[in-house]
Specification:
The protein is mostly helical and 316 residues long. It has two domains: 2-274, no CATH class; 278-315, no CATH class. It has helices at residues 7-14, 20-24, 30-47, 50-62, 66-81, 86-107, 114-137, 143-155, 164-190, 204-211, 217-234, 261-274, 278-281, 295-315, and strands spanning 239-241, 244-246. The chain has a two-stranded antiparallel sheet with strand order 1-2. Residues 285-316 are annotated as: Disordered.
Length: 316
């Protein structure tokens, strides 16, 4: 029920009653709610293990060529960092990277081999730099971007709005070029002459991805909402390409200027709260049903285990 307090942020701009800036000012401001929606989506991706599924899929395409492998790791980090905080992205990617480095070390002559150190250094630096660069690519990639958006609107109120699509138009190309430059530098500095084909099993990432099992209902639903959110952000306002103009979807409403990126973000966030998980509507005898235990049931189960342990100890 607490989430219903966010409904005015969604409904008032869509129905042309008040602008998003006016409504969110009663709570905080547009920037804060864009923050919140981004964090909620990031938490949802982590909750259903989609970050690991996406990263392993990308890595499984790259094989064991050291340069391509590092590029795959950096690319996965870059993409995740566009929508998840830089720190959280690094925390997601480091375990995968460590498993690769460990496999290289175990298949070599020891953990201190020069080749292992060179590859590990390139991987860890690649994750750090690509997470930082990826945060520049989208408006919600890192908090300073949203701070800039807020200050731009406050200092220059007559300036064109800094939307998700506008930022993506200039931020992504710059960030992508920087990613390639960093990858080229790391490859030239650390990976020259490094042969991993005979050291690392090329099926390692495919095996890890297969171990994740089939896509669950929740993973599919979150992926659809994630894609929809990005689509709505990009195409909210008119996009002009020389003589061609793609009309924004907000124009179907009576007051398109009332709708902001925060409106889109909070709409998806509220859907994430109210959309049922699979076990919420499946029959208890259906395959894949997982009943969530209440605190009382957990306490009873713990007590039964303690009694069983005490009885076992007494019999001994």
């Amino acid at each position: 029920l607490v989430v219903t307090a966010f409904l005015p942020i969604i409904l008032f701009p869509l129905f042309g009653i008040l602008s998003s800036a006016t409504v969110t000012a009663q709570y905080a401001n547009n920037t804060i709610f864009l923050f919140i929606s981004g964090f909620l989506m990031a938490l949802t991706l982590q909750r259903w293990n989609l970050h690991r599924r996406f990263s392993l899929k990308i890595l499984s395409w790259c094989g064991v060529n050291p340069g391509i492998l590092v590029l795959g790791i950096m690319g996965a980090t870059f993409i995740l960092s566009m929508f998840v905080s830089n720190t959280a992205t690094s925390l997601m990617m480091v375990p995968n990277a460590l498993s690769i480095c460990k496999a290289l070390e175990e298949s070599g002559t020891g953990s201190n081999t020069r080749e292992s150190r060179r590859f590990s250094t390139a991987v860890m630096l690649g994750i750090a730099y690509s997470a930082n660069v990826g945060g520049m690519a989208s408006l919600i990639g890192t908090p300073p971007n949203l701070v800039f958006q807020k200050q731009l609107a406050a200092i220059f109120p007559d300036a064109p709005e800094m939307t998700f699509a506008v930022w993506l138009g200039f931020g992504f190309p710059i960030a992508f070029i920087m990613l390639l430059v960093i990858w080229g530098y790391l490859t030239f500095t650390y990976l020259r002459g490094l042969d991993m084909a005979s050291r690392v099993d090329p099926e390692i990432f495919k095996t890890q991805y297969t171990n994740l099992g089939p896509w669950s209902y929740e993973q599919i639903a979150v992926t659809v909402l994630f894609t929809l959110e990005a689509f709505l952000w990009i195409f909210r306002k008119d996009l002009e390409f020389d003589a061609v103009t793609i009309e924004g979807w907000a124009n179907i409403f009576s007051e398109p200027k009332h709708i902001a990126d925060a409106t889109v973000g909070m709409t998806i966030a509220v859907i994430l709260f109210i959309a049922p998980g699979r076990s919420a509507y499946m029959a208890e005898d259906a395959p894949g049903y997982e009943k969530e235990e209440t605190e009382e049931e957990k306490a009873k189960a713990t007590k039964k285990e303690e009694v069983a342990d005490d009885n076992a100890s007494a019999s001994n």
